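> call design_seq(struct)
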């Protein structure tokens, strides 16, 4: 028994009911199929499934009923034709790029990327003969200059990690499409609720579902979303044979997380806005970056392509690394951790954690100053979060 996959339903409803595939028992909660393999009624059926003549599951690395429900629900929420779940967010990024690139191809990416994404673009892909060019993401002239006839893909984060830099998705998509290339976007910071990259012209969307989708610090997961032709024709064969499939248990946890995603993210975004405004009024905050604030460099673009401004705030604390550490160590409610999108508010110091692999020159070029901290706001009372952040800023100012 299968629930309706009605794309006219609101996202909030789709997050509760979308993609459900009930067994003969008619269970309310999605079934968890903890199995690696599947039994065939006869040898002829086994042969037909392997050749694709008839549908059906073969092996958990290829697909699983619980994972399939998660993929369908995420595709509905994103407005994508199809999706394929991966073992982690980085597995999704890597698969989305490598499945469509070969030696001699060219990739253009924005400079403002998560450290592991930069590793894939700058170090890993060139090892296999893929040429890569990094550009200043908001600068459309740099995109136009970087595009070549052999450009096959482009990759961006918007908003970026950790400086919340925004890129004009529609404009970059138009440039990329002019040479027949695809635009791949990491939409984690915006979440599927606040930004719809496929509607803006992107071709492929990737998520670390470890973040807001799980949202409670339990499981790793990732997903790639796009056209059925791309997902099944290019991505699926790569993941099936490379092996970065999502665990059925983790998929079940993600399905449960999706049921409350709307409620959690809306509340977290409201808290982020309050914390950003309070921090900006404190003298120890050299700079506060939040797309919803008018002083954000791309605030107008945020209003144009986002319906909400996210759950993350970046604060440059006075006093450099020492000031940032005083800030971090004074916090009581907000916990020091490099995850984000969690029900618990978390904070990290990018230059010594997530982006420590980069040179100081690279970090400064990306706006990752020694005093920059990244705050992911959770579900605690906003007034407690504001008081905690102000406590941290007071400690930074005290020296």
């Amino acid at each position: 028994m299968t629930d309706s996959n009605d794309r006219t339903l609101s996202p909030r409803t789709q997050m509760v009911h979308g993609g459900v595939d009930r067994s003969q028992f008619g269970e309310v909660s999605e079934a968890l199929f903890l199995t690696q393999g599947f039994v065939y009624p006869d040898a002829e059926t086994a042969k037909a499934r392997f050749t694709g003549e008839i549908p059906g599951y073969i092996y958990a690395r290829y697909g699983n009923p619980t994972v399939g429900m998660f993929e369908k629900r995420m595709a509905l929420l994103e407005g994508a034709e199809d999706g394929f779940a991966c073992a982690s967010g980085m597995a999704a990024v890597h698969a989305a790029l490598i499945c469509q690139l070969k030696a001699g191809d060219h990739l253009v990416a924005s400079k403002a990327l998560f450290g592991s994404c930069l590793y894939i673009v700058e170090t890993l892909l060139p090892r296999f003969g893929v040429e890569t060019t990094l550009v200043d993401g908001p600068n459309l002239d740099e995109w136009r200059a970087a595009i070549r006839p052999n450009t096959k893909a482009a990759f961006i984060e918007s908003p970026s990690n950790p400086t919340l830099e925004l890129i004009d998705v529609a404009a970059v998509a138009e440039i990329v499409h002019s040479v027949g290339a695809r635009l791949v976007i990491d939409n984690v910071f915006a979440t599927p609720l606040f930004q719809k990259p496929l509607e803006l012209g992107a071709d492929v969307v990737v998520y670390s579902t470890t973040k807001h989708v799980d949202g409670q610090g339990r499981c790793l997961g990732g997903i790639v979303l796009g056209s059925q032709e791309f997902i099944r024709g290019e991505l699926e064969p790569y993941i099936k044979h490379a092996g970065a499939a999502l665990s059925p248990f983790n998929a079940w946890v993600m399905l449960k997380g999706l049921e409350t995603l709307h409620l959690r993210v809306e509340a977290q975004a409201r808290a982020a806005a309050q914390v950003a405004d309070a921090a900006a009024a404190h003298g120890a905050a050299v700079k506060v970056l939040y797309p919803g604030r008018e002083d954000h460099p791309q605030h107008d673009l945020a209003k144009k392509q986002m319906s909400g401004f996210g759950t993350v705030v970046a604060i440059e604390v006075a006093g450099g690394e020492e000031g940032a550490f005083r800030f971090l160590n004074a916090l009581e409610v907000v916990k020091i951790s490099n995850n984000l999108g969690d029900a618990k508010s978390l904070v990290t110091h990018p230059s010594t954690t997530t982006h420590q692999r980069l040179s100081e020159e690279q970090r400064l070029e990306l706006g990752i100053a020694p005093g920059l901290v990244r705050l992911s706001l959770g579900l605690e009372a906003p007034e407690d979060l504001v008081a905690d952040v102000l406590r941290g800023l007071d400690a930074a100012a005290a020296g």
